[in-house]
Design a protein that fits this description.
Residues 513-733 form the PPM-type phosphatase domain. Keywords: ATP-binding, Cell membrane, Hydrolase, Kinase, Membrane, Nucleotide-binding, Phosphoprotein, Transferase, Transmembrane, Transmembrane helix, Two-component regulatory system. It is a multi-pass membrane protein. With 860 residues, the protein is of the alpha+beta class. It folds into five domains: 1-154, 2-Layer Sandwich (Beta-Lactamase), CATH 3.30.450.20; 213-304, 2-Layer Sandwich (Beta-Lactamase), CATH 3.30.450; 326-496, 2-Layer Sandwich (Beta-Lactamase), CATH 3.30.450.40; 509-733, Phosphatase 2c, domain 1 (4-Layer Sandwich), CATH 3.60.40.10; 738-858, Histidine kinase-like ATPase, C-terminal domain (Heat Shock Protein 90, 2-Layer Sandwich). Helix 10 (303-325) packs antiparallel against helix 11 (332-343), helix 16 runs parallel beside helix 17 and helix 17 (556-573) packs antiparallel against helix 18. The longest helix is centred in the N-terminal third of the chain and has 43 residues, at 2-44. The mean pLDDT is 84.
């Protein structure tokens, strides 16, 4: 290719040079003829030329003129001669007077003579013209000549330009050839002509012989190439190539795919009566030209098989979705609804789930019992099927009863002809058939050997009855759902047991007392039974103890542990212990529980149990509080301001080793003390500090009574779905009127006992309690006598008129008296026995200064 281009360029250059030379020669000759004739005629007709011929010495006149004209016109010579051809002028003066060399005969006849000759100065062109007189006779001749070399200099100027242009053209041709060669080598990957020819032949043969259509569309959507199979499959016209794919009469979806050039993988398109699988990829992904190549494969033969595969895939997807969508909660009813919602409308038009009542409550079902419609889902809401909640007692001929008895699915392909099914309810059966429901699959819900109920799949839209494959799918769906429903049933049973245990352990009614106005709420968690508890415990001396506790966790273990701790608090409170000492004993108890469960291999110790214990005295209005890892109490003052008193936070119960501290609060009458568990102020979405501030703002807006306070707190602070139990106690404080309190200091003298009896008699008269005078005198006599005899100064007597009449004797001794039965021969030992017999309750409590022996009598 390169040599051919060089030869062509050289031939063109030679041809151009030859043409230039010939053209220049022709032009030079023509120019010489024209110029010589013009100069000769101009000089012959010039004024004075004819007159000079008649002068005595024509050469003297004509020679200067001829030379001047020759130089002006740039010719080689101007010769004036007579009619005999003798020269009168010549550039070379030695040739004047000699004979002119050339043809003059025609000129003498009055014509112009032009001839080309080779003279002494080289090839030239000379012209001879006559000089005529007035009468037309020739009186002389003028000849002018010029060499062709003088007028041929243009060729010398143009030839270098021509050669330079030829060289540039040769260089450009060489560079262009090199670039084309490199591009061809890159595109053909170094293949030679033979390899390229062979490849094209094979490509063309393969393209048109394969049984798969191939289409190539350009970037504008123009069809560039279509093989024979593509033309056949798409029924393309003969002139399809070069036309836009949208103009080929294809289906809109197929034409749109080919026109856009988007990537497609195994897309199925219906083209007339063929089902084509189309794959399409762009051609410019690796630097190629814009466009796309598509392949088409006829899958019409696989249509039926594809339909069956699609149905199988849909069934597999449904089974997979069943494993994900059924059993998301541990609620029996919701699980049954999930099964019905999954199957409609993908499998059946209506689905009903009927369960035994015992299953709904978590119990063991009995197959002889009636069923209850638990779930109903359909494509429409007006189907005349039994509604949800309807109790159903099956007749023996019903397909559901037969399925439960046999333990396998029963199919009724044509309900209009199923007499056994219609016998269940003749009127409703007729309504169902008239509604359009024509086919039924009844599948028993079986979990192991346990029958939980039956699931019914109803069909109305498709005219075909359920087939065997669909029966198998229904059995598989129900089998998977049965596991989830049984799990929900077991959870319901355990939850009910835990709720029952918890309710039995929590206080059902609060004891009667006048020190505090109590309102409370207990809300269990949505996810299970927890370990929160509370209690109100009347103590001696008209005092009341408030306790709130929390065991971390849910379920039976937490509820049982809570019951043990609440029982322990009851027992410890009977000892009249201060709050810090009671929490210390409770902490030791929890530690022992943990040790016992660890020894038994349990994995759920009670670490994390918290408790708050408070004792309120209505006489002194003093409230003593201690807490073990529990949130602090809130205090609402009578003016409505809210604060969280500083109560030392002890460690949670069960850690051991650290003492508990108390805080003493003097509460004004009408204050409200708010005790709660952490479920009220803490959850996964916020920190406890945020919850406490929210609780403060809520309490500031609470009503004046404890009941209003509980309601407002729960209405505003209760989470939509509590994850932990919530226990809340609001205690409004009361003060015991000073007129209901009588106190006396007793000297350490046995004679003072009489004065005490006299004083208490007068006080009981003021309170209109004369009926209790004798027993009260006897009780105080025994208690004061013991204090004087066995106790120490100071001795103090206090009588309280509350719900009962309370007698208290204080002394500085820490020795506790013991009740004993005196023998017949003993002189003493019967005092406390008499006190115990005469009083409703009696006991001893210790103070930092000593002890108090008290006794309560019911009011008449």
């Amino acid at each position: 290719m390169f040599v051919l281009q060089v030869v062509i360029v050289l031939l063109l250059v030679v041809a151009a040079v030859v043409a230039l030379v010939l053209q220049v020669r022709h032009d030079s000759t023509k120019e010489a003829r024209n110029r010589s004739v013009a100069v000769a005629e101009a000089f012959a007709n010039a004024p004075g030329t004819r007159e000079a011929l008649g002068a005595p010495d024509p050469s003297a006149v004509l020679q200067p003129r001829a030379e001047a004209a020759r130089k002006a016109t740039k010719v080689d010579f101007i010769v004036v001669m007579n009619t005999d051809g003798v020269r009168y002028s010549h550039p070379k003066e030695d040739r004047i007077g000699k004979k002119f060399v050339g043809t003059i005969a025609p000129a003498l006849a009055g014509k112009t003579v032009i001839e080309e000759i080779t003279g002494t100065i080289g090839p030239l062109v000379q012209a001879v013209v006559p000089i005529k007189a007035d009468d037309g006779s020739v009186v002389g001749l003028v000849s002018a000549g010029i060499t062709t070399e003088s007028v041929g200099g243009a060729a010398d100027q143009q030839l270098p330009l021509l050669l330079g242009t030829a060289a540039a053209a040769l260089a450009l041709a060489t560079g262009g050839t090199a670039l084309v060669s490199r591009r061809l080598l890159r595109q053909t990957h170094g293949l030679g002509p033979h390899e390229m020819t062979r490849m094209y032949e094979h490509h063309d043969a393969v393209l048109h012989s394969v049984r798969e259509g191939v289409l190539i569309a350009g970037g504008e959507g123009t069809l560039v190439l279509a093989n024979d199979e593509a033309r056949r499959l798409l029924d393309l016209p003969a002139d399809a190539e070069g036309r836009h794919v949208l103009d080929l009469g294809l289906a809109p979806d197929t034409a749109g795919l080919l026109a856009t050039g988007r990537v497609a993988t195994d897309e199925v398109h219906l083209v007339k009566d063929r089902l084509l699988v189309i794959n399409q990829r762009p051609t410019d992904s690796q630097g190629g030209p814009p466009g796309a190549v598509a392949t088409l494969r006829d899958s019409t033969e696989l249509r039926a098989l594809s339909g069956r595969a699609e149905a199988a895939r849909e069934r597999l997807n449904m089974l997979y979705d069943a494993g994900v969508a059924i059993g998301t909660s541990l609620d029996v009813t919701r699980t049954a609804e999930e099964l019905a919602e999954l199957a409609v409308p993908r499998f059946a038009d209506f689905v009903t789930v009927d369960l035994f009542d015992a299953v709904l409550s978590g119990g063991q079902p009995e197959t002889t019992a009636s069923l209850r419609r638990t779930a109903l889902t359909g494509i429409r809401k007006d189907a005349p099927l039994y509604p949800v909640g309807q109790r159903i007692r099956l007749v023996d001929s019903a397909p559901q009863a037969r399925g439960l008895a046999a333990g396998q699915a029963v199919v009724e392909p044509r309900l209009g002809e199923a007499a056994g099914w219609q016998a269940q309810d003749l009127e409703r059966s007729a309504q169902v058939v008239a509604y359009g429901i024509h086919s039924l699959i009844a599948v028993p819900l079986r979990a192991g050997n346990l029958l939980l109920g039956v699931v019914n799949f109803w069909r109305s839209e498709k005219p075909e009855p359920f087939d065997s494959d669909e029966v198998a799918l229904a059995e598989e769906l129900v089998a998977r759902a049965a596991v989830s429903i049984d799990n929900a049933r077991r959870y319901t049973r355990e939850h009910n047991m835990a709720v029952t245990l918890q309710r039995s352990l929590l206080p059902r009614t609060l004891p009667e007392q006048d020190a505090l106005e109590i309102a409370y709420r207990y809300l269990p968690a949505q996810e299970g039974v927890g370990g929160d508890w509370f209690d109100v415990l009347p103590l001696s001396g008209a005092r009341v103890a408030l306790v709130v506790g929390d065991v971390v966790g849910h379920g039976l273990h937490a509820a049982a542990t809570m019951g043990r701790l609440r029982t322990a608090v009851h027992n410890f409170s009977a000892l009249d212990l201060p709050p810090d000492e009671l929490l210390a004993l409770l902490d030791e108890l929890v530690g022992r529980i943990d040790q016992d469960e660890t020894a038994e291999g349990e994995t759920a110790p009670v670490t994390g149990a918290t408790c708050l214990y408070a004792i309120y005295d209505p006489v002194s209005r003093l409230c003593t509080i201690a807490r073990a890892g529990h949130p602090p109490p809130a205090l609402i003052h009578p003016d409505g301001t809210v604060e969280f008193p500083e109560v030392p936070a002890g460690p949670p119960l069960g850690l051991g080793g650290l003492p508990f501290e108390t805080a003493d609060l003097e509460l004004a009458e009408g204050s409200r003390l708010v005790l709660y568990t952490d479920g009220l102020v803490e959850d996964r979405s916020r920190d406890i500090d945020v919850g406490l501030e929210l609780l403060r703002s809520t309490l500031e807006q609470a009503g004046p009574s404890p009941e209003d306070t509980c309601r407002i707190v729960l209405d505003s602070r209760l989470p939509t779905r509590a994850s932990d139990d919530i226990a809340l106690i609001v205690a409004g404080t009361r003060a015991l009127d000073g007129h209901r309190v009588a106190e006396w200091q007793v000297p350490c003298d046995p004679a003072a006992v009489g004065e005490v009896r006299a004083s208490v008699t007068r006080q009981l008269a003021r309170w209109d309690l004369e009926e209790l005078t004798f027993t009260t005198e006897l009780i105080l006599s025994e208690l004061v006598t013991n204090a004087i005899r066995y106790g120490g100064d100071p001795i103090h007597v206090r009588v309280l008129h509350d719900r009962t009449l309370i007698c208290e004797v204080f002394d500085s001794s820490s020795t506790s008296p013991h009740l004993r039965y005196a023998a017949m021969t003993d002189e003493g030992g019967r005092g406390l026995f008499l006190v115990a017999q005469l009083s409703e309750r009696w006991g001893t409590r210790y103070t930092p200064e000593g002890k108090v022996i008290w006794a309560e009598q019911p009011l008449p």
